[in-house]
Amino acid sequence: MSNEDTVRTFLSGFNDPSKIQASLDLLAEDYKFKNPMVELNSKAEFIPLAQSIGATLTGVDVLHVAQAGDWVAAYYVFKSEIPGVEVNPATEWFRVENGVIKESHLVYDASQWRKVYAAMEES
To answer: How far is CA 85 from CA 3, 94, 116, in A?
Structure first.
């Protein structure tokens, strides 16, 4: 599987909760994740976030993917049924080594998502 295919497979797991494990299987144990609100330093730290976010998403539409060496950039729209954050354009930069994702940096407008994260923490 190419690095681009690895990233596309990872993102497609967020379209169907039954496929999220296949996405998580593509992460290195020492996977590092950063978005506008959190920074995580292992796959074990990322899994609870992925499961809770995955449960709120209604789809991820990948619009463009570009690769340069070990880095793959994806521009996509992630969707939810949560009022105020139904459609969210994002870009994520992935570093892929030996078929596994070692790190990713997700960039999107988090102003409304901060409220969603706060509500998750209260639950």
So the answer is: 29, 23, 9
Q: pTM for the complete prediction?
A: 0.89
Encode the chain (123 residues) as per-residue pLDDT tens digits.
Answer: 899 999 999 999 988 878 889 999 999 999 999 999 899 999 999 999 888 877 888 999 999 999 999 999 999 999 998 888 999 999 999 999 999 999 999 999 998 888 877 776 776
Task: Kindly give, in sequence order, each residue whose CB lies less than 8 Å from that of residue 107, ignoring residues fewer than 6 positions away.
Answer: 35, 36, 90, 91, 92, 93
Residue 110 phi, psi dihedral angles, 5° rounding: -95, 5
